[in-house]
Amino acid sequence: MAKKPRPIQTIIGSSSGLRPLLAQAREQTRITALVRENLPPPLPEHTLGTRIKGKELLIYTDSPAWSSRLRFCSRELQRQLRAKGLKIQRIRVRVSIDTPSRTAERHSMRKLSPANARLLEETARSIGAPGLSAALRRLARHQRG
Predict the structure, then answer these.
(1) Dihedral of the CA atoms 35, 74, 61, 84 (nearest 10)?
(2) Whole-angstrom distance between the N-terminal and C-terminal Cα of the chain?
(3) Is residue 13 in a domain?
(4) Burial degree of 2 (CB within 10 A; 0-12, 13-18, 19+)
């Protein structure tokens, strides 16, 4: 008779190596939710996650613009989080860069119009710097046919 499969939570919870990681993930999720609750809209939507590092709270956002807005609110946020029992001395805001996947579509190379290619060729001939001249000639080769 075949054994009944065990639920994944049981396997993770019983593994001594995974138990601390699971506890850390739960704590980070709890802190992220606490941070989002104390931010004015629309900042919670742009807060990707948090991490406690010593007495420092790291907050990750999805863009530099939202990172700046969050830094502007960080003193008030720190005060609110301390009032709720989170013992932090400093808040740092970081931007989480989303790297494109390897399977993402490649963009086709842009091609120059014949007129722009001629202009680049003329400019390359008139410039005395050999490196710049060669670079302009390479660019001119990308014209539409």
Answers:
(1) -10
(2) 70
(3) no
(4) exposed
Cα–Cα distance, 39 to 71 (Å, whole number): 11
Q: What range does the domain containing 129 cover?
A: 110-145
Nearest partner of 80 among 113, 35, 42, 110, judged by Cα = 35
pLDDT in tens, the chain (145 residues): 568 887 877 776 666 777 788 888 899 999 999 999 999 999 999 999 999 999 999 999 999 999 999 999 999 999 999 999 999 999 999 999 875 555 555 666 677 888 888 999 999 999 989 999 999 998 888 876 5
Looking at the structure, tell me whether residues 62 and 127 fall in a common domain: no
